[in-house]
Design brief:
homodimer; Glutaredoxin; Glutathione S-transferase Yfyf (Class Pi), Chain A, domain 2; 2 domains; 9 helices; 6% strand; globular
Chain lengths: 242, 242
């Protein structure tokens, strides 16, 4: 039975980390809200699901994944589940948990990237918090991006099985998520990232290598891949770059 | 062999979610930075560990837990590990993942609570971002607290095995984390929470029940429990309450 995947139909957002894992796995899945006749009805389908009162494990927010009777929310929890089922995580317990730990740290980076354009509230428009966004983005660019990417570079350098992947000797969902977060940062902060990527050569190489994997390349070239835009988590506002 | 637990020695912070699980489990653990001769040397021990270059799984930040050769960072990942070892999570896979999903959502709430006093940057003092903090706190109080606590209340109401715990019929680490996040919110936003807790009776009852568990009560009354203060995640700034 195909997985049912639920996420906003017009942005990559957090859902993209799940989409990439499903695509790399070659899994059979239906992107529910994108399969509706238009974006509006896709969002309605999503909201209607969240408001059902007959679900014992209601997700707090999209993305969530339905696999038969199992319903899972929270990006990192979905990836933990998919990792086991599609050989996108090691079987060894300590390594499996290490992949998850890396994923959770990438999730923190994604949250901070979001808050650069919404430092005061997700309920206000960006236009209503621009000066604050500039201050937050400065700190993010100068302190946080180097700290997070430097940490990922260090992990690659220290992997006893080589810097071709974050953990062990084969691809994991954390590598796919590394690709996606770098894609997002390059989209949102192109000037800063051009300089930063020179400092983290292993990370830059892994980012490139993931883009060349056959299934990922096919996905990126398909119309299933939504383009980055200014409704998503990673937004290109030139005034926030530097 | 005792667990070695690493976290800032003078705040509850994210580490407290781990401390509560260790205490409820009756686990043998050493709170490394608190066992140093003074707070300053405890922090130094922590930083020195993070800067070691011989660790293949370096944590990004505290808290982290060392169990023999296994080193785990990220609060939710540590709890996933401890949950399995100390019967603080169900064995059934779907329920085990559901507990983890709840924990990750509580972690999001904790992150947002932190950002009420640091909306622009963790590198600036609160005093340098007070007007912004007031705007962010308003949105947090009025939109986010009710949304998160309402979701937890709904989970309790829908648990087929009763509202005495979030998942299944026995205590999990998610229940302990619910206790802690409510404690923190009551400390930081007492006026708001007095009103809000009336709207979520099951959650309020579970919060009370956890405080009465023998090991938790003993812990809360011990000097191992650090008092809330204005260096932690949950800070009481009256101007942010309302």
């Amino acid at each position: 039975m195909a997985y049912e995947f639920y996420y906003w139909p017009s942005i990559q957002g957090r859902g993209e980390f799940v989409r990439l894992a499903l695509e790399e796995a070659g899994a059979d899945y239906i992107d529910i809200a994108r399969n509706s006749v238009d974006v509006g009805s896709g969002e309605e389908a999503l909201m209607a699901f969240l408001e059902r009162d007959d679900i014992s494990h209601p997700p707090f927010a999209p993305p969530f994944l339905k696999d038969g009777n199992v319903l899972i929310g929270q990006t990192a929890a979905i990836l933990l589940y998919l990792g086991d089922r599609h050989e996108l995580a090691p079987r060894d317990e300590a390594k499996r948990l290490w992949v998850h730990q890396i994923q959770l740290t990438i999730a923190d980076l994604v949250g901070e990237a979001h808050d650069t354009h919404h430092p005061l509230s997700g309920d206000l428009y960006y236009e209503d918090q621009k000066p604050e966004a500039q201050r937050r983005a400065k700190s993010f660019r100068e302190e946080r991006i180097p700290k997070f990417l430097g940490w990922l570079e260090r992990i690659l350098a220290r992997n006893p099985e080589g810097a071709g992947q974050l953990v062990g000797s084969v691809l994991t969902y954390a590598d796919l998520s590394l690709f996606q977060v770098v894609e997002g940062l390059v989209y949102a902060f192109p000037r800063r990232m051009r300089r930063t990527l020179r400092e983290v050569p292993r990370l830059a190489a892994l980012h490139q290598a993931i883009a060349q994997r056959p299934r990922i390349r096919a996905y990126l070239n398909s119309d299933r891949r939504i383009a980055f835009n200014e409704q998503g988590i990673f937004r290109h506002y030139p005034e926030l770059d530097g």
